[in-house]
Amino acid sequence: MALTYVKIASATVGAGGASSIDFNTIPTTYDDLVIKLSLRSTDSAETAINLRFNGSAGSAYNWRSLAGNGASASSGNASSVTEIFGGRMPSSSYTASTFSNNEVYIPNYRSSTNKSVSIDSVNENNSSTALMVMVAGLRAVTDAITSINFSAPSGNFAQHSTAVLYGISRT
Amino acid sequence: MSKTYDPIASTTLTSNQTDVEFTNISQNFTDLILVKWGLQNAGTNMVMQVGNNTYDTGSNYSGTQVFGNGSSALSDRFANDTRWFVNFSNSNTNAITSICQIMNYSNTTTNKTMIVRNSDGSFYASAYVFLWRSTSAINRIRMTIGSSGLLSGSTFTLYGIKAE
Fold first, then answer.
1. pLDDT at residue B5, as a whole number
2. Which of A147, B2, B41, B135 is the most exposed place for a label (fewest CB within 10 A)?
3. In 3-state terms, chain A is what percent helix, strand and coil (to 5)?
């Protein structure tokens, strides 16, 4: 019987942090991709995560988000921008030793169509504002995804942040 | 190596269709995951019916949704309907990803619950919780958009997850 959720690669951020987490040379042997991340920022204020494909910072990304922070719900959007909003992570001012829980699902990453991305991102802080974010992302480029890049608008990913890339096969 | 998402069946549409079905679903798993990706006719809802040997067409379906369209966060619900309204498409040019999780689908002791995450990067993100008021095991699932609204190239994959 076929196996699914096959681990392709993983990354763990060491001392000093990392400005990005990259998965390159993604095999073409799967149908869907899933990335599971546990992240924290070294910046005292920044919590956003940026997601790009194939090293491209061209303005071909669109996204819609739905978020709740424990007090209110909100929705955001962007069109023709240089990255997909990949969810949130705790900043360095959040409760210590607390990391986000994020999942990025990319169906049909090898297809010759625009790429749809589903992102779930949660943080619980026990004190200040926490966030649950759902993001619907779109990369309006038809080439297959061969690399994935996570970064932050400012600051780095803190030590002990992790990311694991899985491939899913339909058969 | 342990198995996780066990592929049960998959179909890729080679033409526009009204229905996609998964029948004779193995009862050997604990949960089901159905991943739908692809284009739909603009202005359409994809609906779903489930059943045991025959589809339930009675008023036994309900759901609650939280929805964000980029400017507003909304919540709505429906009750006592003859099907689940799984997603909505406002364009036939952007693929929608719908990830559906049906927990404990094969038991005969509880009503059935499904969680769906919908993603349309040019329109909305949503999450839905659905209830089928039947304790019957589910061994068939049908997704429908009338007038051949499920467009060619769309993929539908059913996985089983076993708790062991």
1. 79
2. B2
3. 0, 50, 50
* Chain A CB within 8 Å of residue B164 CB: no
Task: Please state, as a whole number, how many other Cβ atoms lie within 10 Å of the Cβ of residue A63.
Answer: 26
Mean pLDDT of B152-157: 96
Maximum alpha-carbon separation in chain A: 48
B58 token code pair? 């009675």
- Look at residues A28, A27, A30 and name the one whose alpha carbon lies nearest to residue A107: A30
Q: Which residue has the tokens 């749809």?
A: A116
Nearest to B48 by CA among B34, B38, B37: B34
Instruction: Indicate if the pLDDT at residue B126 is higher than 60.
Output: yes
- B4 close to A166: Cβ distance less than 8 angstroms: no
Q: Which of B90, B72, B122 is nearest to A79 (CA)?
A: B122
Tell me the average pLDDT of chain A.
91
**Distance (Å, rounded) from C-alpha B105 to C-alpha B81?**
20
Residue type, B131: L
**Residue A27 near residue A168 (C-beta atoms within 8 A):** no
Q: How far is A171 from chain B (nearest CA, A)?
A: 6
Residue B154 to residue B96: CA distance in whole angstroms: 9
Q: How confident is the model at residue A138 (pLDDT cuts 50, 70, 90)?
A: very high
Q: In terms of CA atoms, which chain A residue is nearest residue B66?
A: A66
B4 touches chain A (CB under 8 A): yes
Check residue A1 and give its pLDDT.
46
Q: What phi and psi values does residue A57 have, to the nearest 5 degrees?
A: -110, 20
Q: Do B155 and A74 touch (CB under 8 A)?
A: no
CB contact under 8 A, B70 and A75: yes
Contact residues on chain A for B129, CB-CB shorter than 8 A: none
Q: Which two tokens stand for residue A9?
A: 């690669």
DSSP A60-123: -EEEEEEEE-SS-EEEEEEEEESSEEEEE---TTSSTT---EEEEEETTTTSSSPEEEEEEEEE
pTM over 0.90: no
